[in-house]
Here is the input.
Amino acid sequence: MKRNVKKGLTSLLSVSVLSLSAASIISASPANVVPISAPISAPAQQDVVPISAPIQDEVAPYAAVTGVVTQIQDHGADGELKMLTLELEGGEIANPVITKDTYFIDDVEPAVGQKLVIFYDTGKPMLMIYPPQYTAEVVAEVSDDINYKVDRFDENLLSADGNLILNVSDETDITFADGTPFEGELSDYVLVVSYTITTRSLPPQTPPVKIVALEDDPGLPVYGDPELPESEDLDTDEPVVPISDIIGNVGEKDLVVNDLIIDAPAAYLSDEDHVMVPLRAIVEALDLELKWVAAEKGIIIDEDITLAIGKDLYANADNDAIDLGAAPSLVEGNTYVPLAFFKDVVGLNNAYVFESQIVIDNNEPIE
Here is the structure.
């Protein structure tokens, strides 16, 4: 078995910068940590201390929230997800979302009353709503006897936030998420590290108790209207996966406009795999003016954006003609447009499908 083993000190520091607002809590330790009663021996000539607080406040690739579970409810299409309500130490509320890909340390099963630490990927888009929602990557029950860290580590086994070096030995238990023995380079994976003590060095070092290697998943949202590859680009030996299998049932997703869930007719997926969303409800939520031109079955938004039912020809504020690949449609008295309309024609920064929501806003662009 090939392992990337680090036994000395290193000074390499790398920090990944978060593109969206996220909590900067880096360590999974409780605020007040009881010293370990039987510390593992550390490298020679190093003083050993229990873990206490994060060394720095810079935002790391993976961050954590710690709190007591007060509620668990079904979430997402068909309730295949679970949303937890966590009460944090300061009384704030957070809503981590459990998915099929969430990893549970020691197979912990979340229950009301438990104190959990939940790690999330700060590089993934997060909706700017309150309470904040995080996609839970790793879940563990808080313990006074052990600490956890989730991060990427470089070839020297220095964490991406620069806060921890792993001193891995042949006795370190290293597995994949399914429990099979690890083979490969640790720097190629996101690591779930269980540890007890660290040295006084900067950055601190630890002989980890256990390491679980997770596959790295960027988890990016689907932007605008998802498109299947051109037929000549398809591998004819492999079936094409329907876009609905990728993004789920859009009709069951919440419409979130400018960070607020709005009351609106359900979206739908067209035969050409365009996400179609109700125009009027979204335009009104954006505080734009909408006019109906009955004679032409046309619509004017804010005096300068125009479109017509059944015509795949839109005009933006600069009077540029834009083809979106799908025409506005009239369904049960409601006008629907492709989701991409709000980004490509109206000019907003974001219009995308992400997990259980369809998001439209002019916040910082998500690339």
User: Anything to note?
Assistant: The longest helix spans residues 279-285.
